[in-house]
Each structure stands twice: as C-alpha cells, then as structure tokens.
Amino acid sequence: QQPVQSPQAVILREGEDAVINCSSSKALYSVHWYRQKHGEAPVFLMILLKGGEQKGHEKISASFNEKKQQSSLYLTASQLSYSGTYFCGTERVDSSYKLIFGSGTRLLVRP
Amino acid sequence: SAVISQKPSRDICQRGTSLTIQCQVDSQVTMMFWYRQQPGQSLTLIATANQGSEATYESGFVIDKFPISRPNLTFSTLTVSNMSPEDSSIYLCSVEVPGRANTEAFFGQGTRLTVV
C-alpha cells in the first residue's frame, strides 16, 4: 500500500526541469512532499489537500489530481541545491494523521 | 514549526541487547510518530504514539519488539528490544503541527543504529 513514485532516479544539468510523480491505489486526503539530503532528516516542502489544487514554492510546485489519486512535483530551472531524495507522503482518507511514504526519487543536479 | 531533539544520534550495539531512543519536542503535540529508514530506502512507519494511550503499531511491528512510551505531550521513547543485525537502520521520530495550509510533519535528525 506504499505509494508508487517515478522515476526512481533523475540526473539533471543545472537549469533543467524535472517532474516526479506519486501514485496511490487508495483514496487520499492529502499529499506531502519532502526532500532528504544524505545524512539529514527529511524536510517538508509542501502539502496538497484533496481538491486538485496546485501549489508552488519558489521554482518548485506540485499538483494533486484527486480523481486519479496522483500527485506530481515540478522542479523548474533546477539548482544544485535541489539534489537529494524526494519522497511523497500520502495521508489516506480512511487513516488520517499518519503518512505513508513513497519509495523515493533520487535527484542529482550537476553543474 | 517544531524543533525535535533525538538521542542518541548513533549507536553500535551488541545483538541481544536493547536500545532506547528519546525524542523531545519543543512544543506540545498530540501525536508522535516513529519511523524506520534503512539505508537508501524509504521511511516505514513503525507506530503512532498518543499521550495517555497505548501506541498503535503498523503491520509487521509489535509492541514486544518496539515498546513505546509517551509520558507527556512533548516526549516519547522507542525501544528496540533483543536486537539483531536486521534491526540496523535509522530510526526517526516525527510530529505533525498545524501549518499554513494544514498539518506539516517535522522530523528529528534520526538515530543511526548498527547492531553487531
């Protein structure tokens, strides 16, 4: 019941764009996105609630398709600091308050 | 936001022994969560700890192996009992606090456990 993330890994040149997808087989109440750098704790990026909203934070934005139980994270004009592993955390309608994390997407941004 | 202090940051333990991990939060929170993250893997929820009641464990995790205490709204402990090398992992505590849109989850820095 772990959400499925794709791709597993991405290598970008600085300034390029990337999309990371997160898909669940269960009805979701919200989707959270986190970035984790090696040896550090995951850091919250944003949360999307059911309703199909799209959010943005600087050059990172995300969308949530409630009907498909899918969320996508968009990284625009990537910077070196974007490197890390991105996790989606899903909060299901039938078990709120706890997050189930996807398998992760490793992103490497090169100069 | 929330600041979480987790101790110890790392430990090397002998198989068959137990280790207790502490998690201290700088504000009162209703729920605290314990996760396990094996190297290069995702975060797996072990249990949810509520103050004043027994922890709720996820499938594959049992209280005898991972007893949890939650004596107040700012503190929790996770014990890894009768350890084996398969328990080597990073253990993280997490809390959810109200944010601008909804709840936001914050994590402690983790405890890197190696069982030899």
Describe the structure.
The complex is a heterodimer of chains A (111) and B (116). With 111 residues, chain A is mostly beta strands. Chain A has one domain: Immunoglobulin-like. In chain A, 0% of the residues lie in helices and 61% in strands. In chain A, the strands form two sheets. In chain A, strands 2, 4, 5, 9, 10 and 11 form a six-stranded mixed β-sheet that branches. Chain A is globular, with a radius of gyration of 13 Å. The mean pLDDT of chain A is 90. Chain B is mainly β and 116 residues long. Chain B has a single domain (4-115), classed as Immunoglobulin-like (Sandwich). Chain B is built from no helices and eleven strands. In chain B, strands 2, 4, 5, 6, 9, 10 and 11 form a seven-stranded mixed β-sheet that branches. In chain B, strands 1-3-8-7 form a four-stranded antiparallel β-sheet, with no helix packed on it. Chain B starts with a strand and ends with a strand. The mean pLDDT of chain B is 92. At the A-B interface, strand 4, strand 5 and strand 10 of A face strand 5, strand 9 and strand 10 of B.
List the helices and strands and how they pair.
The complex is a heterodimer of chains A (111) and B (116).
Chain A: E1 4-6, E2 9-13, E3 18-23, E4 28-36, E5 43-49, E6 54-57, E7 60-65, E8 70-75, E9 84-92, E10 95-101, E11 105-110
Parallel strand pairs in A: 2-11
Antiparallel strand pairs in A: 1-3, 3-8, 4-5, 4-9, 6-7, 7-8, 9-10, 9-11
Chain B: E1 4-7, E2 10-13, E3 19-25, E4 31-37, E5 43-50, E6 56-57, E7 68-72, E8 75-80, E9 89-98, E10 103-107, E11 111-115
Parallel strand pairs in B: 2-11
Antiparallel strand pairs in B: 1-3, 3-8, 4-5, 4-9, 5-6, 7-8, 9-10, 9-11
